[in-house]
Amino acid sequence: MTLSLAAPHAKGKFATDKIFGASAAANKDAAQYGKDKVVNATIGAILDDKEALVCLPTVEKVYRSLPINEVINYAPIAGLPEFLEAATSLAFADNRPEAYTSAVATSGGSGVIHHTVANYTEIGDTLLTSDWFWGPYKVLCQDALRKLDTYTLFDEKQNFNTKSYESKVAELLRKQNSLVTIINTPAHNPTGYSLSNSDWDSLLDVVKNAAKDQSKRLILLVDIAYIDYAGEKNECRAFMKKFTNLPDNVLIILAFSMSKGYTMYGQRTGAMIGISPNKDVAREFADINQFTSRATWSNINRGCMRLLATIYNDKTIMAQVEKERAQYYGLIHARADIFVREAKAANLHMLPYIAGFFLTVPAKDPDAVCNKLHEDHIFAVPLGKGIRIAVCAVPSFKITGMAAKMAQAMAEVEK
Ligand SMILES: Cc1ncc(COP(=O)(O)O)c(C=O)c1O
To answer: Strands 126-130, 147-151: parallel, antiparallel or unpaired by DSSP?
Structure first.
């Protein structure tokens, strides 16, 4: 027996990070055989065609021009007011619903999830997300002594599976009065799927229907981490207008993050934006989440908040950032297009990709297929039921041929 001094609830916590493991294997291979030979499709950040990490040039310029006091000083716990205004406005673009909104600064999108779990569920409660999901959702739930359950994201025709969502909502609401559902859209990690406007209509029908029982509280956490790489700005935000006239016992929370949209991954800056038809609920949202910030990390990164406010308040700079980002959106999409086209030709089944950093190929034994791919110097992330390819990080010339090799590896492993 190894000695443990951890409190009972903390014993045995250990983060087994498959992404980290796959990425370490890729680096080792590159050191041995040369970077040119290795396809590292594990990294969740944009790399250019020379495989260098991208910082949007105008973002870098503005960041470097900030006065030092704006970088080093403390910030208000709730966030700089100019930042909160910029984040809210940028999150909605022209699609602000008619509702009360309030915002609190967080340590990235992860911070939004943390606070939502802490303040809108009870210890022992179960949260809900789709069966394809970003692993840390579960870690965040477990660490807070909550559970995570899943509905099936796609039906047999690869459409959004409203029925599965509906039955899980009903099942969980039989056991608890409050239900948080995490929905990562548009440009979902790991599949690249985006809910269509009609998917949203059916989903909101389920929520409104469940909310007819006044003793229930339904919270939708919409994780928009990849929204800036999801297509035309207002088209991919059109669903937000649907958050008008919701019942009082429904709360929407947008998880805004600067990690991807502003390539500020490690700077840990985001905001939770609450949307409610009820003034009290909106005020309570600001109060309780600010309190949890004080108790979790105090204030967040002032420099990065100032950065967003500065960009947002200068139309020319804002337009320049959007232009630069659009080029990278194009680059990522072109890479994904190659894979999708070649997958079709190789009869390789993949999940519906619309946009975003990742695409997914379902597999019966993802670990075995990934290991087999190592022989071809291809490194991807094995998930529970599939393989995640980070098209954000692999240059086009290395994507070419990848789908065929995957199809072959799959056939060999599954024969
Ligand atoms: C689906 C999803 N949500 C949220 C995040 C949160 O990112 P951050 O906490 O850096 O904003 C990520 C980052 O990888 C993600 O993939």
So the answer is: parallel
Residue written as token pair 């009065």 = 177
CA atoms of 407 and 330, how far apart (whole Å): 26
Q: At what angle do helices 108-120 and 136-143 cross, to 10 degrees?
A: 40
Q: How far is the CA of 294 from the centre of ligand 1 (A)?
A: 22
What is the rounded CA–CA span in Å between residue 121 and residue 127?
8
Pick one of 3.30.1330.60, 3.90.1150.10, 3.20.20.70, 3.40.50.2300 as the CATH number of 8-56+318-414.
3.90.1150.10
Q: Which of 10-24, 83-97, 155-169 has the lowest mean pLDDT?
A: 10-24
Matching residue, tokens 């991954």: 265
- Where is average pLDDT lowest: 7-16, 238-247, 327-336? 7-16
The answer to whether 224 and 186 are in contact (CB under 8 A) is yes
Residue 275 near residue 99, CB atoms below 8 Å: yes
d(CA 413, CA 366): 10
**Among residues of the chain, what percentage have pLDDT more than 90?**
96
- Ligand 1 atom closest to 258 (CA): 11
What pLDDT does residue 31 have?
94
| 109 Cα to the center of ligand 1, angstroms | 5
286 — pLDDT class (breaks 50, 70, 90) = very high
pLDDT digits (tens, 9 = 90+) for 327-343: 999 999 999 999 999 99
Distance CA 153, CA 181 (A): 13
| Residue 177 CB coordination number (10 Å) | 12
How far is residue 93's CA from residue 97's CA, in Å, rounded to a whole number? 11
* Domain range 74-313, CATH class: alpha beta
Is the predicted pLDDT of residue 17 greater than 80, yes or no? no
Q: 70-92 pLDDT, tens per residue?
A: 999 999 999 999 999 999 999 99
DSSP state of 169: H
Tokens of 2: 């190894």
Q: Cα–Cα distance between 406 and 400 in angstroms, integer?
A: 12
Number of other CB atoms surrounding residue 315 within 10 Å: 8
Point out which residues pair with 100 in neighbouring strands.
276
How many angstroms is it from 292 CA to the middle of ligand 1? 20
- Residues within a 6 A CB radius of ligand 1: 44, 108-110, 134, 184, 189, 223, 225, 257, 259, 265, 270
Domain ranges of the chain: 8-56+318-414, 74-313
